[in-house]
Amino acid sequence: MYRSRPSPSYRVAGVGRLFALLLAPCVGCASADPGDVAPSDPRVASVEVTLASPSIAAGETTRASAVLREAGGAVVEGRAVGWSSDATTVATVDAAGVVTGVAAGSARVTATAGSRSGTAMLVVTAPAVETGAVIFADDFEQDRTASYFEVDDADGSFVRVPGVGLDGSWGMRARWTAGQVSAGSLKLAFGRTPDRYFRPVDAGTARYRELYWRLFVRNQPGWVGGGGHKLARAIVFATPGWAEAAIGHLWSGSTDQTRLVLDPASGTDAAGALRTTSYNDFPNLRWLGAGASRTPLFDAAHVGQWHCVEARMELDDAGASNGSFTLWIDGAREVELTGLDWLAGYDDYGINALFVENYWNDGSPAAQERYLDELVVSRAPIGCATTARRGAVRPR
């Protein structure tokens, strides 16, 4: 039925009644403030959080649940909660309360309903390294410098000292003066090598096609200048003169010095013939394409903290460009390069050396220190468990 428009006086009265209705209490309706509970529901006085499992390994999941209670203890039904983790590098939680372990450590899982919240502590462990997979481990609690075929302390710049490692343990301290380029290195050999000089730490017969290495890194508070370029590299040495068939560089970027970069290189040609004749024979290297970490490890927000850095180098099969190079930081995968032809058919040696380096191409811009601890070299994934905390990896 057609109705005429109301008169102006009626419209005003109608609007007044509309505002009155809008401002009146609504029985059974929830307040616009998510912290309030509708009068028909008891006000939430507490939130209790439980975890199906209070301890999981990195990569595993568990479910968190929350019980809301009123002041008298009765359970409040039908209220949604929001989930969060105070350490997302250790564990994450989704909207349904599914918690995923990221890296070894502890995290507080929180459920929030309005202005009330409750928490539960979760411990995330790294899986123990596969039995027999560890090639070498050094927590620096004992002096194992004789295990390395070369140790360069750079006139005392790179030394093993107490109090600088994880939890105040022993560790390696690299100290630069302003303008100093090299602050020392550790050079480790394993597997089949082209010369006795390399002194492998194992039986010296294996030909490693896949290798994991892990170390903890901490730059002193107030550190400046980025990553200091070199950190570590895995190598396929091919001759007594240190010609390299493949190199897995782990260093900081040339443009953004706050990030770690995977920079793989081949010392063979596309047919698999060795082209390099010496160490760092750059004119004869094939660079396979670099990838930078998401985490700016060396910016002001990250220096002064310990970070777990793990890399994996997998050589390609003959006739197939199926090699890979992967980086994890604090248990989270940051970069993965695939389709790499490290060797292009070359097969005389596998990965047989790892260098831990403190080398600043342009010299450190200031006097400052970097600390290293818990070095592990393995045939299987390592994770961020430490010898002191978990007993997962034991030195040889």
Descriptive account of the structure:
- With 396 residues, this protein is mainly beta.
- The chain has two domains: 46-125, Immunoglobulin-like (Sandwich), CATH 2.60.40; 134-378, Jelly Rolls (Sandwich).
- The protein contains one helix and 25 strands.
- It has one helix at 8-23; strands at 46-51, 55-57, 61-69, 75-76, 82-85, 91-93, 98-101, 105-113, 116-125, 134-138, 150-152, 158-161, 171-176, 182-189, 210-219, 230-237, 244-252, 260-266, 286-287, 291-292, 307-314, 323-329, 332-340, 353-359, 368-378.
- The strands form four sheets. Strands 10, 12, 13, 15, 21, 22, 23 and 25 form an eight-stranded antiparallel sheet that branches. Strands 11, 14, 16, 17, 18, 19, 20 and 24 form an eight-stranded antiparallel sheet that branches. Strands 1, 3, 4, 6 and 7 form a five-stranded antiparallel sheet that branches.
- Strand 17 (244-252) and strand 18 (260-266) form a beta hairpin.
